[in-house]
Amino acid sequence: MRILVLTNFYPPYELGGQEQSCEDVVGGLKRRGHHLVVLTSMHGTHNLPVEADGIFRWLYLEMELATPGHSIRFFTERKRRERHNLDCLQRVVEQTGPDAVFIWGMWNLPRSLPALAEALCPGRVVYRFGDYWPTLPSQHVLYWHTAGRSWLACLPKRLLSAVALAMMARDGALPRLKFEHTICISAALRDTLVECGIPVSDARIIHNGIDVEPYLQCRQHQATPREDRPLKLLYAGRLAPEKGVDTAIKAMAGVVFGRRLGDVRLSIVGSGTPDYEDVLQQLVIEAGLTDSVAFLGRVPREAMPELLPQFDVLVFPSIWKEPFGRVLLEAMISGLVVVAAGHGAPCEIVADGENGLLFAPGDAEDLAEKIATLAGDDQTRRRLVDAGSQTVLERFTIARMLDQIENCLKDVAGFGTETVQASPGQAPVSTV
Question: What's the pTM value of the predicted model, to 2 decimals?
Fold first, then answer.
């Protein structure tokens, strides 16, 4: 099959697990003989179009990340950039003739892009939902409804916002998408989308999967007996309010001071905005936990298989309902017990007391109790480790995920589910 993947971000310019999974799927389908082209944003390239190995970084985001000047660009560049994006999509479709368009991530890209894909490739567009983007307004609307960050910026932005919102109102409503063929990465995500009025009740549930081999190899080489060291906890992910890292820090106070368990350590891996990182570090200082909690910064994806086996427990304290949680799989196959907030997609991965532990979302005391249980009961911890690893091997491998996605794309493209010969080489795509 010839498959065009349309997505907002693509490694190495990624935000998290969603882009990593996209790269895994693209690589896996290529190895199975399919021809793939990825059309994605210029995020990470300073808005310079780049093409390499079938990855076309040509698209403008609606709102550039961590870059000032959006107000000016809105009035001077918005329409031109949207037309550019639509021209790029049409050019790629015309020159590659895809059997299917696979839409991966659309947050911060104009809704007109998937609408055009549906028009150009009727009945052959597959949406894979890994977040809640169909429920959100455009980034332009969000930007103009948000107050300026400083008092100097508030007044001029308030005045300009009236003009900007009126301009967008004249453009009309966002395009209504058909969503004929859909995949959701969890039932929790599907149910939330349906509750918000998105017509995906018949979506296929295809959970994310991982390549387990790098994790198993590093686990075998690095395993250290628990008796020789303190219980080592890990948080790994973005540092943002919705991730609940403050809950983990407060739980550590309950463990160290409330339960007098001094042989427990928490390491925090990841990065966020400098302001929020300062908030978390100040919380550690105020709680008197500087000897028990350490900030290790961001760790590249390729280092995770070696990092994870150095710990005993992964804490996953998200306040919001996570659509999935790739790091849960990585931790379980690496020999860690997962202790996760009991809502959203983690409940489809972790069965409380069977292959991990769940705690009440936002409840630091409940989390502290779960940590104390693991600190005092190595037999339970080992049982959960074994069951967690088995869960990943049985249900969450990348091969299983690829089988399901490949079958879905074949059905939509009209190939059926039998083995398909590789399509002829695609036509060269001209540089923007």
Answer: 0.88
